[in-house]
Design goal:
The complex is a heterodimer of chains A (408) and B (141). Chain A has 15 helices and 12 strands. With 408 residues, chain A is α/β, with parallel strands linked by helices. Chain A has a 7-stranded mixed β-sheet, sandwiched between helices. A 3-stranded antiparallel β-sheet of chain A has the order 9-10-12. In chain A, helix 2 runs parallel beside helix 7 and helix 9 packs across helix 12. In chain B, strands 1-2-3 form a 3-stranded antiparallel β-sheet. Classes of the chains: A alpha/beta (408), B alpha+beta (141). At the A-B interface, helix 9, helix 11, helix 13 and helix 15 of A face strand 2, strand 3 and helix 2 of B.
């Protein structure tokens, strides 16, 4: 069966050019970068080249990049580290309600340690406004952490403006750029960012390796105590193959950013137009303009998202939903609820995320398979008839998938 | 998966003798059952469900289990029995997604109400829905 992968916000397929540098790093370049002999020096050189490549993607200096075990680790390191290092100065942190759980759950942990956290609301498009950030600042605020782009709805936040506010008030500013890095032009200097998290597996790199940008001069306690690796911030022999792969993924993402964005934006808009043309009662989630080039998030009203996902999977398509039933909890996406969606609409969300490899044929395949699935589930939905007044079979002309029709 | 992929008895019965609806959109599952009763036997049954894969599958198998049963037998069906007929459900699905027996019982209550029959012996498996901390309580309809 044909498979179409449209869940690139969850993880991407590794780029063969990334794999090409990773395999020799595993097979041949086995030296411990902390040793002093030839194999070690080669390994150290590769590590530092990778660090420079990561820094290059975000306008940082190589010495300001710390390799981590991924985006969540970088987020934890930033928040818990700043709380520990600057806790005596103040005990207040500002974040938003639509952050990734790596931020939200860390904030909850910090609250248990006695810190106060303000969770900023977002507007209907998922935007945190600079004005709200300004209003939330207190004399004891030590950190503002706002994501660069939202992982579910793709909304890109006004990071430069928020960073400027933080800088003016001398408050440290962290951004979780896990979804944005490699998709958005990021410059930590221009954007007034003090700490930034990113990861490899969202940009055609491997899982299990990420990085934290830490502006020079910002204090942070060691995440892991031990040797002096990563300037003492994270002890342990470095994941050299992972770091080299992250470096290459960053280099490629930076070099091909414009080309990839142009390709994905075109397909994204084609996909959105197709969905709206073929399926009635669909709502776009996220900002119509300020959104990631690869993100489509819609609520197909009157049906529940997990049913769509399972049927799409049966048709060979991998996608995602903010449906409660896919999250292991019984509440739908906290992001969609924060944007003001009612529960039923939030349960029916569908996230389709593209990669540079996604083709028009992939989108056409999705556009062929999704409408009858929506019809099928709507015919089955008591909510559809209750709110629209007719059953899906009468409303939608193509009844091929209609179980009612089939039974008759 | 079979009952999700190929749900049986989807639809409505225009002149149903009993209609029952349980769940709520906050919880993410709404099930509506329609029954036709002849001489105390459920001769036809249909359902409509807004919900996840497990909700659709449990609705489908509940209709299969109830069809041809007497009202007395059908009202003894439990949500747990429905889940077991599917060879079990993951723990997280045992809550709101497994309301099918309740939907059936709600339809039987409606049937009995319309005929002035006593329905005080029917108990919905309310406690099964303890997972919806912020949603289900008191919102059945």
């Amino acid at each position: 069966m044909k498979r179409v992968y449209l869940d690139n916000a969850a993880t991407t397929k590794i780029d063969p050019r990334v794999l090409e540098v990773m395999v020799p790093a595993l097979r041949d370049n086995f030296g411990n970068p902390s040793s002093i002999y030839a194999e070690a020096r080669t390994a150290k050189k590769a590590l530092e080249e990778a660090r420079a490549q990561v820094a290059g993607l975000i306008g940082a200096k190589a010495g300001e990049v710390i390799f981590t075990g991924g985006g969540s680790e970088a987020d934890n390191m930033a928040l818990r580290g700043i709380a520990e290092a600057y806790g005596k100065k103040g005990g207040h942190i500002i974040t938003s309600k639509v952050e990734h759980h790596a931020i939200l759950h860390t904030c909850e942990y910090l609250q248990k340690q006695g810190f106060a956290v303000t969770y900023l609301p977002v507007d209907e498009f998922g935007l945190t406004t600079p004005e709200d950030v300004k209003q939330a600042i207190r004399p004891d605020t030590i950190l503002i952490s706002i994501m660069y782009a939202n992982n579910e709805v793709g909304t890109i936040m006004p990071i430069r403006e928020i960073g400027a506010i933080a800088r003016e008030r001398k408050i440290l500013f962290h951004t979780d750029a896990v979804q944005a890095a490699g998709h958005v032009d990021i410059d930590v200097e221009r954007d007034n960012i003090d700490l930034l998290s990113l990861t490899a597996h969202k940009i055609q790199g491997p899982k299990g390796v990420g990085a934290l940008y830490l502006r020079k001069g910002v204090k942070l306690p060691p995440l892991i105590h031990g040797g002096g690796q990563e300037r003492g911030f994270r002890a342990g022999t470095e994941n050299l193959p992972g770091a080299v792969a992250l470096g290459k993924a960053c280099e490629l993402a930076g070099a091909e950013l414009e080309k990839n964005n142009a390709h994905m934006e075109k397909l994204r808009d084609y996909l959105l137009d197709g969905i709206f043309a073929k399926i009635p009662y669909v709502k776009l989630n996220g900002h119509p303009k300020m959104r990631l080039s690869n993100n489509v998030n819609v609520s197909v009203r009157y049906i529940e998202g997990e049913g769509m996902l399972l049927r799409l999977d049966m048709a060979g398509i991998s996608a995602s939903s903010g449906s409660a039933c896919t999250s292991g909890s019984l509440d739908p996406s906290h992001v969609l609820l924060a944007m003001g969606l009612d529960h039923a609409t939030a349960h029916g969300s569908l996230r389709l995320t593209l990669s540079p490899e996604t083709s028009k044929e992939d989108i056409d395949y999705l556009l062929e398979k999704l409408p009858p699935i929506a019809e099928f589930l709507r015919v089955m939905s008591p909510v559809y008839k209750a709110e629209v007044g007719v059953c899906g079979r009468q409303e939608l002309k193509n009844c091929a998938a209609c179980p009612v029709g089939r039974e008759k | 998966m079979d009952h999700f992929a190929n749900p049986r008895n989807v639809g409505e019965i225009a002149d149903a003798d009993g209609i029952g609806e349980v769940g709520n959109p906050v919880c993410g599952d709404i099930m509506k059952f329609f029954i036709k009763v002849d001489n105390g036997i459920i001769t036809d049954i249909k359902f409509k469900t807004f919900g996840c894969g497990a909700a659709i599958a449990t609705s489908s198998i509940a209709t299969e289990l109830a069809r041809g049963k007497s009202i007395a037998e059908a009202q003894r069906l439990t949500n747990k029995a429905v889940a077991e007929a599917l060879d079990g459900l993951p723990p997280v699905k045992m809550h709101c997604s497994n309301l099918a027996a309740d939907a059936l019982k709600a339809a039987i209550i409606d049937y009995k109400k319309k005929r002035g029959l006593d329905y005080s012996d029917i108990r919905l498996d309310d406690d099964e829905c303890g997972g919806c901390e912020n949603a289900c309580a008191g919102q059945r309809h």
